[in-house]
Amino acid sequence: MIAVQCAESFRTLPSTSALRRYARAALNGTKNEITLRIVGETESRTLNRRYRGKNKSTNVLSFSYTPPASRLPPPVFGDLALCAPVINREARAYDIPPSAHWAHVVVHGILHLLGYDHVTARDARKMQSRERTVLARLSFPDPYNCRR
Fold first, then answer.
1. Is residue 71 in a domain?
2. CATH number of the domain residue 120 falls in
3. What is the distance of C-alpha 27 from the center of its chain?
4. pTM score, two decimals?
5. Cβ distance 41 to 125 under 8 Å?
6. Pairing of strands 2-6, 32-39
7. Whole-number pLDDT of residue 108
8. N or C terminus: which one in the chain shows less Cβ crowding within 10 Å?
9. Judging by beta carbons within 10 Å of its beta carbon (0-12, 13-18, 19+), is residue 61 exposed, middle or buried?
10. Looking at the domain assignment, is residue 97 inside a domain?
11. Among 117, 115, 135, CA closest to 125
């Protein structure tokens, strides 16, 4: 299940069905219990400061919850905090459609829940390759070739 919560009113947001579609594409059939929480800059900054030690708002934060051990592949449990003002501002700065950037940020956050990371160059290449594949399936362009 993919729940969508909106903490505040925002003028420009993708539809709930679009957000779920982006998340499902990244999950690729993995069982899940995920909440996509759309937040403002204050909540994003508070979460980023509390959990990452960075006193600024950010486009997405991923919070993964480890399920109990079992013989089956674990379902994905987690939350994404998606900061609408930051995502929309970045889309304008990159001169790309907001829907393309929202899709990228949701996919990026879901991949973190799936264990991907970009701490090392090798990990970043692996994660970016997966992002490109998922976004192409959603008919969005390569997010790393459209930035100035």
1. yes
2. 3.40.390.30
3. 11
4. 0.91
5. no
6. parallel
7. 96
8. C
9. buried
10. yes
11. 117
Task: Judge whether 148 lies within some domain.
Answer: no
User: Does 112 fall in a domain?
Assistant: yes
| Domain around 23 | 2-137
- Which tokens sit at 115? 């264990």
Half-sphere exposure of 33 (CA within 13 A, CB side): 6
Can you give the pLDDT of all 148 residues of the chain as single tens digits? 999 999 888 888 999 999 999 999 999 888 888 999 999 999 999 999 999 999 999 999 999 886 655 555 566 789 999 999 999 999 999 999 999 999 999 999 999 998 899 999 999 999 999 999 999 999 999 988 865 4
Q: What b/e sequence results for 20-29 when a residue is b if at least 16 CB atoms lie within 10 Å of its CB, and e otherwise?
A: bebbbbbbee
Task: Give, rounded to a whole angstrom, the gap between the first and last alpha carbons of the chain.
Answer: 36
Quickly count: other Cβ atoms within 10 Å of residue 76's Cβ.
20
Burial class (CB in 10 A: 0-12, 13-18, 19+), 109: buried
| Domain count within the chain | 1
Length of the chain: 148
Both tokens of 116, joined, read 């991907």
